[in-house]
Amino acid sequence: MTSAYCFTGRSALVTGAASGIGAAAAKALAARGAARLFLVDIDGAGLDALDLPGEVHRIVGSVADEALWQALDPRLAGLDHALVNAGIGSGGPIASISLAEWRRVMAVNLDGAFMTLASSLRAMEQRGGSVVVVASVTGIKPVPGIGPYGVSKAAVAHMARIAAAENAKQGIRVNAIAPGGVDTAIWESGADFTALVAAIGREATIKAMAKTTPLGRFATSEEMADSILYLLSDAASNITGHVMVSDGGFTL
Ligand code: NAD
């Protein structure tokens, strides 16, 4: 570990921190010395289950709730790092998906990411900092059957690049990561996934789904956290406006 890849004394915000990629990133930040963590999730029990050193603020609520950000804004002043990560899955082809479902996904994945990013940028404007937005390869490669999800992820990647251009002079770097398949709980929300799990078990389902990935497997949350921490860290001090694809070759 180079000293540049170290978070000693830093403060960081992580949304969707109770599970999967967000939980792995929160643990990795704490392990690398982060002194003050702000963790946001709708899953309070999941946040409580995280055993982390240092000062940890657990905020139970939705990233899509404007009042949450209004209340959190003053508490985040001087923030060093932010991971805009909370997200939900969605299934169904564009022709048949309801407007209500479209809006449900956009409310969290796009509006929630916008409010998280905006609040983080305001908190960093005096001293600079770094942000990573969690997008997805489905925002790059059109994958049938997940329209609103893929559109929301294309949008947040572009939002990260706009924010990078707008905030470079303030010393704020903004990057995105576009994961391919990662073995997390988000898949449980898909009807096709749960039907296959019921038929052949979870491990076999993940293996079957990973067949379209050249490396032949889904990633772990810890692998994503490693790449995220690199982008957040001073080791990536010259990198901003970048969308890092980490997908085992899925987009090849
Ligand atoms: P996950 O389900 O394990 O974690 C998502 C977390 O977000 C959960 O703790 C959940 O409670 C929280 N959350 C959901 N809605 C929320 C809301 N409105 N407000 C606050 N918290 C909320 O899934 P994950 O795979 O770790 O997902 C993290 C991010 O990674 C998401 O943005 C997801 O779209 C993205 N992603 C995941 C994959 C994958 O294959 N798992 C691939 C590409 C991108």
Task: Explain what the structure shows.
With 252 residues, the protein is α/β, with parallel strands linked by helices. It folds into 2 domains: 3-182 and 220-246, NAD(P)-binding Rossmann-like Domain (Rossmann fold, 3-Layer(aba) Sandwich), CATH 3.40.50; 183-218, no CATH class. Helix content is 40%, strand content 15%. The chain has 8 helices and 7 strands. A 7-stranded parallel sheet has the order 3-2-1-4-5-6-7, with helices on both faces. Helix 1 crosses helix 8 and helix 4 packs parallel to helix 5 (147-167). It is globular and about 50 Å long. The site of nicotinamide-adenine-dinucleotide has 29 residues, from helix 1, strand 2 and helix 4. Residues 15-16, 18-22, 40-43, 46, 62-64, 85-88, 108, 112, 134, 136, 179, 181-182, 184-186 line the site of nicotinamide-adenine-dinucleotide (NAD).
